[in-house]
Write a structure and sequence with these properties.
The complex is a heterodimer. In chain A, helix 1 packs parallel to helix 4 and helix 8 packs antiparallel against helix 9. Helix content of chain A is 44%, strand content 14%. Chain A has 3 domains: 83 residues, Acyl-CoA dehydrogenase/oxidase, N-terminal domain (Butyryl-Coa Dehydrogenase, subunit A, domain 1, Orthogonal Bundle), CATH 1.10.540.10; 110 residues, Butyryl-CoA Dehydrogenase, subunit A, domain 2, CATH 2.40.110.10; 152 residues, Butyryl-CoA Dehydrogenase, subunit A, domain 3, CATH 1.20.140. By secondary structure, chain A is an alpha+beta fold. Chain A starts with 6 loop residues before the first helix and ends with a helix. By secondary structure, chain B is α+β, with helices and mostly antiparallel strands. In chain B, helix 4 crosses helix 7. Chain B is globular. The chains are: A alpha+beta, B alpha+beta. The interface between A and B is large, with 49 and 43 residues.
């Protein structure tokens, strides 16, 4: 047992760190360091830089552009990316639709989609939730009726993140209304330019536009865009749950926020000293750091143990990652709120996106703090709310 | 990065876990508690046979040269069984102090006798007024005719009543809270001038109040150079924190399993209570606490060999905070989820809760370690 990185792993970390230092465009780094939101262009630009290096999808099989890195290397890579700080490659592409296509897609689908998914030539969004199907996702009703070479899709999706940026949607649709809820669902790829498909924005509590409603009115989808078998879509959607959950804790991102909070607190006068010197602040931060360190080790245990487990078997420790990871992401945004104090209260959207031409009200870094705090509440809701995670863990791991 | 146990470590784990599961069910434990020293002498001899009592010592002292991971493995198993034997007092702290600070002659005389099960030690360090300050030592050592004369009061001396020898911290100079001027002395527990008052602790172990009145020891009773013991005391406290951390993790895992089993068997309203979501979620939160504590116990164990004292002590404080908080949550919720059964002395679950509670104040409570870490600038 040795919890330190090996010399090879350290050398790899240095290589990754050096690449991020040199290859990440300064304007994107500047935005990310300030906590500003990367634009669509920023995300596309960065993912293409990564892809040119062969690093957009390192966790994929080598034949589709993966790097055959060890789990520890993949971990180091993600951690360094969050610390850089650089935008994550688009998760819908690299962690969701890509792995599903690799596992269940046809040869033609893989050849067509995978290179474009990796290079972000196609931006995918996820069409899962519906107004009546949130945590109870299997009750979804958007229907797809087979008509010759096409499916005719009717219905509505909701909370569709970044649908307004997307070229494609991977979508769960009901193809057999008579079957049990989980058995009548199929996994379709839908072109967002299809006639009959409309998008309506849903502003979120940070005052921004992330989510959308997507309406389908007799949208014709070529049958060749069905992934895997008809009525097996639920299996494909669940496939991701048992795998690759290690990115979900976002330890690097929380670390980066905490480091920032400490640096900023040292600049804020309180009494004779600074906020960073007050006992209350230091102990609060230390308490978060402890849990974050524990989560980091838990994550490394999962990563390191992955090679000892048969595929599809979940490490009990992995159950901690989503729950604790999202709690700590939220705690980190909350501590930044406390650091910013009243400065966080000016609503200035252009300073959140880095598109402002005027001077910010208050310190520049403070403009992003409240939106970040508000939006991060979503982290314990999306991807299966933390309450659903607890249900799943109770059933699968504890046998309750 | 490698979390796997070696083949030898796995064998050690299997044998000590087997011993505990065969010899340490709850009924056995009650019998052991009633034996004169408050634990099982027979089992102690078996630990010696298995090589557990010499585990961390070098081979030339009758040990097997094990490291922090081996100690962690043993302590986890002891935690699961709520073992009563003075392993922490004698092997981890007593033997640890001799190995860290003792002369070659002291190591050669003492360590093999610990390993063979013939000698019990206790670390007489805490004092009633010190709370958690390791360097708060009012007990004095002054020069006598051919050695030292010790006077003072020691409290919370774990297994101090059954020990054959005590390792006593005493001040040869400096202010009461100064890190300078503390010495460690090896004292025969039956020496003239020693008054011992043993008592049972809340968790069923044994402890003692010890009064030293003009206790004479000769010069070679000192461990290391008297006056410079603060670092040694800090190190042994870290070893004790890592060891009890591992013990707590073993106990948490067992308490969680017992609780989940109870949820699966207890029926109310015609169904098992484990079918209720409120209780399911609580059981999951207990699991999260357990896994976080397990991670920090591993980290603390690995950090014992870290050469940088600041990094080492910060990380061990961090681990201690996590483990203590997890233990408290799991202990309290285990009792809650068991309902009335959790309140009875006749059932095991409450005894885990009591053990977590007792461990909470050893070498600094949760707030003490959180404050220490915060003062040192935190982890990031």
């Amino acid at each position: 047992m040795d919890l330190r990185f090996t010399p090879q792993e350290l050398a790899f970390r240095d290589e990754v760190r050096a690449f991020f230092r040199d290859a990440l465009p300064a304007s994107i780094r500047h935005k990310m360091a300030l906590g500003q939101r990367p634009s669509k262009d920023d995300i596309v630009t960065w993912q293409r830089i990564l892809n040119a290096k062969g690093w957009a999808v390192p966790h994929w099989p080598v034949e589709w552009g993966g790097q055959d890195w060890s789990p520890v290397q993949n971990y180091i890579f993600k951690e360094e990316m969050q610390l850089a700080p650089a935008p994550d490659p688009l998760a819908f592409n690299v962690s969701m639709v890509g792995p599903v296509l690799i596992a269940f897609g046809t040869e033609a689908q893989k050849r067509h989609f995978l290179p474009k998914v990796a290079n972000l030539d196609y931006w995918f969004c996820q069409g899962f939730s519906e107004p009546g199907a949130g945590s109870d996702l299997a009750s979804l009703r958007t229907s797809a009726r087979r008509e010759g070479d096409h499916y005719i899709v009717n219905g509505q999706k909701i909370w569709t993140s970044r649908a307004h940026h997307a070229d494609w949607m991977f979508c769960l649709v009901r193809t057999d209304p008579a079957a049990k809820p989980q058995s009548g669902i199929s996994y379709l790829l839908i072109d967002m330019q299809s006639p009959g498909l409309t998008i309506r924005p849903i502003p979120t509590i940070d005052g921004e536009h992330h989510f959308n409603e997507v309406f389908f009115d007799d949208v014709r989808v070529p049958a060749e865009n069905l992934v895997g078998e008809e009525n097996k879509g639920w299996t494909y959607a669940k496939y991701l749950l048992g795998n690759e959950r290690t990115g979900i804790a976002r330890v690097g991102a929380s670390k980066q926020r905490i480091i920032k909070a400490k640096q900023l607190a040292a600049t804020i006068a309180v009494g004779e000293g600074t906020l960073a010197e007050t006992e209350r602040f230091r102990e609060k931060v230390a308490a978060i750091e402890i849990e974050l360190k524990a989560l980091e080790i838990t994550q490394l245990r999962v990563v390191s143990n992955a090679r000892n487990l048969p595929r599809g078997v979940q490490d009990p420790a992995s159950s901690v990652l989503k729950l604790k990871g999202t709690e700590l992401q939220q705690a980190a945004t909350e501590i930044l709120m406390e650091v910013a104090g009243a400065h966080a209260m000016a609503f200035q959207s252009e300073h959140l996106w880095g598109t402002a031409t005027d001077e910010p009200i208050g310190p520049e870094w403070a403009a992003t703090v409240a939106p970040d705090y508000f939006y991060t509440r979503a982290s314990s809701i999306y991807g299966g709310s933390n309450e659903i995670q607890r249900n799943v863990i109770a059933k699968r791991l504890l046998g309750l | 990065m490698d979390f796997d146990l070696s083949e030898e470590q796995r064998m050690l784990q299997e044998s000590v876990e087997r011993l505990i599961s065969e010899r340490y069910d709850f009924e056995h434990r009650k019998t052991y508690m009633k034996e004169a020293p408050g634990f099982s002498k027979t089992l102690w001899a078996q630990y010696a046979e298995l090589g557990l009592l010499g585990l961390p010592f070098a081979e030339k002292y009758g040990g097997s040269g094990g490291g922090a991971v081996e100690t962690m493995i043993v302590m986890q198993a002891f935690g699961r069984g709520l073992a009563l034997e003075p392993y922490l007092a004698t092997v981890v702290m007593g033997g640890g102090l001799i190995a860290l600070a003792g002369s070659e002659a002291q190591r050669t005389t003492i360590l093999p006798r610990i390993a063979s099960g013939d000698l019990l030690l206790a670390f007489a360090h805490s004092e009633p007024q010190a709370r958690y300050e390791l360097s708060d030592v009012a007990c004095t050592a002054r020069r006598g005719a051919d050695g030292w004369i010790l006077d003072g009061q020691k409290s919370f001396v774990l297994h101090g009543d059954c020990a054959d020898q005590l390792i006593v911290s005493a001040r040869i100079g400096g202010e009461q809270r100064s890190a300078q001027g503390i010495g460690l002395f090896l004292v025969d527990a039956h020496a003239e001038g020693i008054g011992r008052r043993g008592y049972p602790t809340q968790d069923g172990l044994r402890s003692a109040e010890i009064r030293l009145s003009g206790v004479k020891v000769n010069s070679n009773a000192a461990l290391g150079e008297p006056g410079n013991a603060a670092d040694t005391i800090q190190r042994i406290a870290e070893h004790a924190l890592a060891a009890t951390g591992a013990e707590a993790v073993g106990a948490m895992a067992a308490a969680h399993e017992l609780t989940v089993d109870y949820l699966k068997t207890r029926k109310q309203f015609g169904v098992t209570i484990g079918s209720f979501q409120a209780l399911q979620h609580r059981a999951v939160d207990m699991l999260v606490h357990l896994e976080q504590a397990r991670s920090m116990s591993l980290l603390a164990t690995m950090m014992l060999d870290e050469p940088d004292p600041v990094e080492r002590s910060k990380t061990i404080s961090a681990a201690t905070v996590q483990i203590r908080r997890s233990g408290k949550f799991i202990g309290q919720q285990a009792v809650q989820l068991h309902g009335g059964i959790g309140m009875t002395l006749e059932y095991k679950i409450g005894h885990y809760f009591k053990r977590f509670t007792a461990m909470e104040s050893m070498f600094g409570d949760t707030d003490h370690h959180l404050a220490a870490l915060a003062r040192a600038g935190g982890l990031l």
